[in-house]
């Protein structure tokens, strides 16, 4: 579904709550995944143009994947750099949640030429999961609109057309 060759945008997730039963990276739960997929569908953001990634890309068997420690966030930098080398057309990261934004900012502070050669831009977005997305329907709608703007701008930077 996702394509290393066609990826233009990385969706960086802070925390998925618990390991996916299938072992895949996901937005955090079924409601979060539905929100994200709905948003991507409305924008016309095809799966091959986006790649999900986790700040801390490992699960500890038998332990819930709770709030990440600063050490776990720091440990995610090297794998993120290695991952970005695999997706050479990616020019934007949409960082969902506090830890994702922290890691993305760490990434921008590195002196790695990969960052400035691509003109990599980071967009800060709300987490789609749990308490971070708890709020009235009106607030949730506002948050989705803000998130949609971030993805639409990332698409425009990458030369992708929005809309269906």
Write a concise keyword list for the protein shown above.
4 strands, about 160 residues, alpha/beta, Uracil-DNA glycosylase
Shape: globular
Helix content range: 40-55%
Low-confidence stretches: none
Q: What is the count of β-strands?
A: 4
User: Strand sequence of the main sheet, in spatial order?
Assistant: 2-1-3-4
Question: What's the end-to-end separation, in Å?
Answer: 18 Å
Secondary structure class reads alpha/beta
What assembly state would you assign to the polypeptide chains in this entry?
A: single chain
C-alpha-based Rg, rounded: 15 Å
Measured by DSSP, the beta-strand proportion falls in: 5-15%
Mean pLDDT: 87
Main sheet properties: 4 strands, parallel
**Topology as H/E string?**
EHEHHEHHEH
Number of helices: 6
What does this structure look like?
α1 links the parallel β1 (9-13) and β2 (50-54). α1 (30-43) crosses α6. With 164 residues, the chain is α/β, with parallel strands linked by helices. The chain has a four-stranded parallel sheet with strand order 2-1-3-4, with helices on both faces. The mean pLDDT is 87. The protein contains six helices and four strands, in the order βαβααβααβα. It has helices at residues 30-43, 70-75, 77-86, 98-109, 113-118, 137-157; strands at residues 9-13, 50-54, 92-96, 121-125.
């Amino acid at each position: 579904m996702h394509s290393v060759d066609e990826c233009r945008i990385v969706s960086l997730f802070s925390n998925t709550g618990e390991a996916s039963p299938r072992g895949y990276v996901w937005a955090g739960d079924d409601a979060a995944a539905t929100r994200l997929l709905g948003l991507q569908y409305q924008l016309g953001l095809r799966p091959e143009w986006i790649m999900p990634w986790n700040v801390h890309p490992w699960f500890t068997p038998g332990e819930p994947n709770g709030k990440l420690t600063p050490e776990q966030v720091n440990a995610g930098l090297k794998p993120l750099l290695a991952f970005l080398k695999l997706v050479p057309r990616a020019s934007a990261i949409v960082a969902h949640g506090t830890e994702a934004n922290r890691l993305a900012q760490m990434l921008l502070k590195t002196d790695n030429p990969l960052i400035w050669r691509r003109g990599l831009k980071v967009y800060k977005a709300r987490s789609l999961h749990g308490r971070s997305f708890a709020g009235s329907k009106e607030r949730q709608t506002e948050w989705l609109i803000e998130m949609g703007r971030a993805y639409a701008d990332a698409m425009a930077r990458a030369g992708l057309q929005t809309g269906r």
